[in-house]
Design a protein that fits this description.
heterodimer, A: 202 residues, alpha/beta, Nitrile Hydratase, Chain A, two-stranded parallel ribbon, two-stranded parallel sheet, 44% helix, 12% strand, B: 220 residues, alpha+beta, Cyclin A, domain 1, 2 domains, 5-stranded antiparallel β-sheet, 7 helices, 5 strands
């Protein structure tokens, strides 16, 4: 009987693009064009400091304050400037409201434009071909696959961010949350609901 | 250009995979992000339109398979080589030292005759004062032109030749089609135009709103 030899752990091979990125990084550092701290800085900045909590604050405030909601739907850019969020610049932000009759979702079919300043960096799926290709052609089917089941009478509106205007969805307030304060409401608001691929409270 | 990046309405990509959700799956992705920022500072690319077009120009197979930061890497290397800052062969040599294979697909496609850098941006944002009046107003019925632009454009194929309605007007913005090629900002009026699913695909129950520059549309 042969002796059982446990398989050697072979670490997964890096993709060619991963290796090439590391090669380019070492060349740019050698040339003095990139500091070795720059990468850690990027990781910290986008993992900890910039994210969808900004958008969630706007949504929660709009839910409790009708005047604020009106301003947000009318001129979100000025509101964002007042809040002074850290993050990528948003030159013009348009907030689109979900109602009982209209459901909105956002995409960039040509690349991956996304409202960084209020939502942080986009998730992988937003930037990849399946979402970009399908949401403008079969939104009802795709949203259903992603967990958004809409009644037939609900009109769907997809916003393709083809220029520098950035779009964010104001999701509907989930039922049963009427007594929560603004901070509690903000913690209910997910990034996916502000892209338009999640219904809160469902 | 009619590159693979113009994905609106393309079929066959299957389900959306919502599983993996970290900001950077690996350190190399954050590295690409940092390098793109550093390369702007180093003067490799003067504006975001040129950067976007560099990504559109990468190897199409790489575009579909190398992931988001793989695409950025391809665009980045393209621009660095075109600016004379790095040499592709040096990158390949270093990559092979690190375990790459000689036959690995390289995304970058530096042009033999790169575009001129063009004039420096006149401000940090992309919105621009325009003294000339807009040709269209909210409510107007418009048709997207059928032109195929050989270089950078933000008119996707899926709306070309289709009729829609202007729902928003955004005043003047830098025009990507010229700005990406060093031909100047040439700001244009920008509109959000709404196309029904019926008009686009013969499907009911939805619409697509897309931002189109004035040269992309004509009165219906």
């Amino acid at each position: 009987m042969s002796k059982h030899i446990p398989p050697k752990h072979i670490p997964p091979k890096q993709s060619p693009q991963a290796i090439r990125a590391e090669a380019l990084e070492s060349i740019l550092i050698e040339k003095g064009l990139l500091s070795s701290e720059a990468v850690d800085e990027v990781i910290t900045r986008y993992s900890e400091r910039i994210g969808p909590m900004n958008g969630a604050r706007l949504v929660a405030k709009a839910w409790v304050d009708a005047e604020f909601k009106k301003l947000l739907l009318d001129d979100a850019t000025s509101i964002v400037e007042e809040f002074d969020f850290e993050g990528g610049q948003v030159e013009k932000l348009v907030v689109v409201e979900n109602t009982d009759n209209v459901h909105n979702a956002v995409v960039c079919t040509l690349c991956s434009c996304y409202p960084w300043a209020v939502l942080g960096l986009p998730p992988k799926w937003y930037k990849d071909p399946a979402y970009r290709s399908r949401i403008v052609r079969e939104p009802r089917e795709l949203l259903s696959e992603m967990g958004v089941k809409l009644d037939d009478h609900v009109e769907i509106n997809i916003w393709d961010s083809s220029a520098e205007i950035r779009y964010m969805v104001l999701p509907m307030q989930p039922g049963g949350s009427e007594d929560l304060n603004e901070e509690q409401l903000a913690s209910l608001v997910t990034r996916d609901s502000m892209i338009g691929v999640e219904l809160l409270g469902s | 250009m009619d590159g693979v990046h113009d994905l609106g309405g393309k079929q066959g990509f299957g389900r959306v995979d919502q599983a993996s959700d970290k900001v950077f799956s690996d350190r190399w992705e954050a590295s690409v992000f940092a390098m793109v920022n550093a390369s702007a500072t180093a003067g490799a690319w003067p504006n975001v339109d040129r950067f976007r077009h560099a990504i559109e120009r990468i190897d199409p197979e790489a575009y579909l398979n190398h992931g988001y930061y793989g695409r950025w890497l391809g665009g980045l290397e393209t621009l660095l080589v075109e600016a004379g800052i790095v040499d592709s062969l040096d990158i390949t040599d270093k990559a092979i030292e690190k375990g790459a294979l000689a036959e690995d697909l390289i995304a970058a496609r530096p042009a033999n005759k790169p575009d001129p850098m063009g004039p420096a941006p006149t401000s940090t944002g992309s919105d621009r004062e325009l003294s000339r009046l807009p040709l269209f107003k909210v409510g107007d019925e418009v048709t997207a032109l059928n032109n195929v632009v050989p270089g950078h454009t933000r008119l996707p194929a899926y709306v070309r030749g289709k009729r829609g309605q202007v729902v928003l007007w955004h005043q003047g913005w830098v025009y990507p089609d010229t700005n990406a090629h060093g031909a100047g900002e040439q700001p244009q009026h920008l509109y959000t135009v709404k196309f029904t699913g019926d008009e686009l695909w013969g499907q009911q129950g939805f619409s697509v709103c897309i931002d189109l520059f004035e040269p992309y549309i004509t009165a219906s």
